[in-house]
Amino acid sequence: MKKIICGKVACNEAIARDIYKMQIQSPELGQAKPGQFVNLYLADKSMLLPRPISICDIEEGCMTLVYKVVGKGTKALSAYKEQDDIRVSTPLGNGYFIEGEELEHHTCDYRGKKVALVGGGIGVPPMVLLAKRLQEQGAEVTAVVGFPEEAFLIQELKGFCQSVHIATDRGTIGFHGNVLELIQEKEILAQEYFACGPKVMLRALSQWCQQQQLSCQVSLEERMGCGYGACVGCTCKIKVVTEAGVEIQQKGVCKHGPVFFGEEVAWDA
Ligand SMILES: Cc1cc2nc3c(=O)[nH]c(=O)nc-3n(C[C@H](O)[C@H](O)[C@H](O)COP(=O)(O)OP(=O)(O)OC[C@H]3O[C@@H](n4cnc5c(N)ncnc54)[C@H](O)[C@@H]3O)c2cc1C
Ligand code: FES
């Protein structure tokens, strides 16, 4: 159940250029599903809106977040020091469909199943907790991760994946190109794909999966306002089957997502 807690920063350090790892401790932290996120409330009251960040890992009383400094909020976050207090609303969103609910068109039995986790840039952090949970469920996990030039979280992924493939836009590390080109070139085939990253990447992967008739779950990191369903700042277009046929409806990513099945998203609408 979601709640706002007051946590203590246990560490906040740079792990690559403009990329920080923050660990937050609180006895009130419960569990979270991979793909769920938190809203961070900054101490500076001029920044009222919370900043959404995906849960990278969570253990008893300790949560790991990995974020990129892109603007005022994440810059302020990078200045937090060990022992600082921070308010966190957690866990938010639906998370990937891998446990608990059995959906009509989808089974959550991953024993012996080949899965591929596809992360792009700041979409890589949620892949760590996802890899951990899928490995615990007995899946054969492969990660395919793409970055502009500098890679991060590779060791963490290697701890839970049978193989980790890296692509960089400039060819500085691993494959020279994007994650979909790498999947196609190396024929990284899986029964199900899970992705998080820039929308163009999610759209290309989702359309490729549909052509191959493979299941694909995508986490949409739309820009958010309130972060809890009140402002309609984060809507995206989702296909919904109704009695009248397939309708395109606006859905708030913070409330109904951030994870959707690729074929549900009206990418071109
Ligand atoms: C569900 C969800 C999970 C997220 N998980 C992570 C994560 O694990 N790590 C991480 O680094 N970031 C993540 N983000 C993005 C993060 O929330 C934004 O980068 C952050 O809110 C920017 O705040 P700011 O005040 O620094 O930037 P602002 O000053 O608000 O914006 C600076 C620049 O960043 C762009 N920007 C802001 N928000 C987003 C966004 N959501 N997507 C793309 N561009 C954006 C703006 O358009 C602008 O160009 C996530 C976003 C969502 C919605
Ligand atoms: S961020 Fe306000 S409705 Fe989603």
Describe the structure.
Helix content is 18%, strand content 37%. The chain has 269 residues and is α/β, with parallel strands linked by helices. It has two domains: 4-89, Elongation Factor Tu (Ef-tu), domain 3, CATH 2.40.30.10; 114-219, 3-Layer(aba) Sandwich (Rossmann fold), CATH 3.40.50. β1 (3-16) and β2 form a beta hairpin. The longest helix has 14 residues, at 199-212. The chain binds flavin-adenine dinucleotide and FE2/S2 (inorganic) cluster. Flavin-adenine dinucleotide (FAD) binds at residues 37, 51-54, 66-68, 70-74, 122, 125, 221-224, 258. Residues 37, 51-54, 66-68, 70-74, 122, 125, 221-224, 258 line the site of flavin-adenine dinucleotide.
Provide the descriptors you would attach to this structure in a database record.
single chain; 269 residues; alpha/beta; Elongation Factor Tu (Ef-tu), domain 3; Rossmann fold; 2 domains; seven-stranded antiparallel β-sheet; seven-stranded mixed β-sheet; 6 helices; 16 strands; 18% helix; binds flavin-adenine dinucleotide; binds FE2/S2 (inorganic) cluster; 2Fe-2S; iron-sulfur
